[in-house]
Amino acid sequence: MTYKWIYKTPDGFSDMLMNSDGEYLTGLWFEGSKDAAKHVTDCEERRLYVFEDTIKWLDLYFAGKIPDFTPKYKLNNLTDFRREVIQCMLAIPYGETTTYGEIAATIAKKHGIAQMSSRAVGGAVGWNPICIIIPCHRVVGSNHSLTGYGGGLSNKIALLNLERNDMSRFTIPKKGTAL
Fold first, then answer.
1. pLDDT of residue 20
2. CATH no. for residue 157?
3. Which residues form the signal peptide (predicted)?
4. Which of 43, 88, 131, 136 is catalytic?
5. How many domains does the structure of the chain reveal?
6. At what angle do helices 118-127 and 80-90 cross, to 10 degrees?
7. Per-residue b/e over 152-169, b at no fewer than 16 CB within 10 Å?
8. Which domain covers residue 108, as residue numbers?
9. pLDDT along the chain (179 residues), means of 10
């Protein structure tokens, strides 16, 4: 059985939806975003312990604090490559960013190969079903373009602002998948 809950975000952000299998958080995404297509929305609404834990985490995060715990989550359909990309995203410190290319280079080096496709990394980043907690918003294009965020460009900008990033170093795409 899949359950859902709605989290009311502070001003400047779209509300968020959560999914759970009853024990673990299995999805977290911005309402109305492209990411919604990856998740179950036609399910029972129930306030579960894992949702309470996630709400506490989100409350701290949106208050500008770095949570000192992580809600219990489970990633379904996790391939080895996706796991490596997730580990790279989890290693990006609060208030910092990395690029798809830098993640690709890290994974290539780990495997002793000359290069890895940054597009493949982009696909794995885009697959991420648990935004913010697994910080896919901290991954940007090689030219520091704020591209490729399924949660919506306005949410990505707001998240990076919340984390006190120097926004002058980023560019906003005029067209493409990020809009």
1. 97
2. 1.10.10.10
3. none
4. 136
5. 2
6. 80
7. bbebbbbbbebbebeeee
8. 80-169
9. 93 89 96 82 92 97 96 95 97 96 96 93 94 96 86 91 93 67
* Residues 108 and 161 reside in one and the same domain: yes
Nearest-angstrom CA–CA distance, 11 and 117: 37
For position 34, what pLDDT does the model report? 83
pLDDT at residue number 42: 86
Look at residue 133 and tell me if it is in a domain.
yes
Q: How many residues does the chain have?
A: 179
Q: Identify whether residues 96 and 42 lie together within a single domain.
A: no
Instruction: Find the angle CA(157)-CA(127)-CA(110) to the nearest 5 degrees.
Output: 95
Question: 132: Cβ–Cβ under 8 A, 6 or more apart, which residues?
Answer: 28, 58, 61, 159
Query: How would you classify residue 132: left for phi > 0, otherwise alpha for psi between -120 and 50, otherwise beta?
Result: left
pTM confidence score: 0.92
In a domain, 27, yes or no: yes
Torsion of CA 78, 13, 7, 148, to 10 degrees: -10
Cα–Cα distance measured from residue 126 to residue 120, given in angstroms and rounded to the nearest whole number: 10
The answer to whether residue 136 is catalytic is yes
Per-residue DSSP letters for 64-118? T---SS---B--TT--HHHHHHHHHHHTSPTT--EEHHHHHHHHHHHHT-S---H
Q: What is the pLDDT of residue 179?
A: 47
